[in-house]
């Protein structure tokens, strides 16, 4: 039997004699990010005195993205009608196909029941602060058409139409920080924020109830915050703790670029574990396919630089589902797997990197590329730039290409021959790729781009129940302790479901709202 990992070993308790200051409140929230702030907002709205402890110098900022919700007034305003039956079908299909129901279905149902209520609550708060919340028609599907076609036609990322945006997008000329008005609302309701203050230990009474948090401030002094009603852990993920990654999600260690928040080192998870909390056995990562293996990021003068914040840079054409092979020259998956599944498949390959292959006739062989997406960078001009910068390779023959990318020639020739055979047949017997993307690799010159997966964080943690109360290793509640956002588990499996864009922020909002209500005493 293995011994405990270092992160499972609780440190010696910080003695009262080391405490420089003690303050009392009803609810302590650890973390001022996407989940911590909504929790503080709701608890403070209900009259609880709230203290928020944030490790960084300010609240967590988030300028892009959006959140998923079902049946909101923003959706109804643009004609998207999501019935309860349809919402349930989307969730069950997605959770079953991507995670084999590794998450707890009661929490899935809980999100469905409350997501619209929470989204509408936030919509009103943000609107009052000048930030519009819009339902985004990700698939060109509105009204009755949603019932007939749930996925984008002729595209390979296949997202459902449940996304909401806060403010305009970068392409529309706005760079709104929608977290700032949320923090402002929490403070207007009485929440007090402590920045540069790192939570280090939970405080428990003789019965085992969590009654507060001890944190270290910017001067190195200890602050003890007692909580009459509860402590909500919302301290982010653990991607920057290598040992925790090796235990709960070792495949993520093969990412080619880590764009996570440097403060996400698993602090909340560790404190909960020391208090007896149980952890998810499998943890998903928020991963993005197509990251160039050179490690080169998107250029600041690229028109999509601002939109993708320097974490999504894919060589031109390689972002489309051409032919993908591993570094040994073997095909390994359907290339049109949706977004996150595509990235996870690449992470499962040797060294976590693969080659995208295509030929000189790519412009005539593939469907129209949608505008204003990463794939719309697939132009001959961008391809020439990538060739000059070395992120893409061109060769006059497959033999020359194999030598340039150091892939065994025999394997590559056999893989391409088999792939071309399946393209001629019109059906992918080997990997079940959609026929629209099955085009032969047969027209010189030939191209290859090395790609892998980038990661922004982990999405899993300590197990919780439907009130967001943390559970111990016997499935029993640890009194006074809650967890939300990426501190909490029980929701995802190994894969973050890409078909529901914004489920991470969406369920974080909802579960933070629920935790705030319960911690405040409702």
- Overall shape: it is globular
**Which stretches are poorly predicted, pLDDT < 50 over at least 5 residues?**
139-158, 295-312, 370-375
Please provide the count of β strands.
Answer: 17
Reading off the top of the CATH hierarchy, the class of the domain at 286-455 is best stated as Alpha Beta
Question: How much helix, percentage-wise, in residues?
Answer: 25-40%
The CATH architecture name of the domain at 286-455 reads: Alpha-Beta Complex
Q: If helices are DSSP runs of H or I spanning 4 or more residues, what is the number of helices?
A: 15
- How much of the sequence lies in strands comes to 15-25%
Keywords:
single chain, alpha/beta, Flavocytochrome C3, Chain A, domain 1, six-stranded mixed sheet, 17 strands, globular
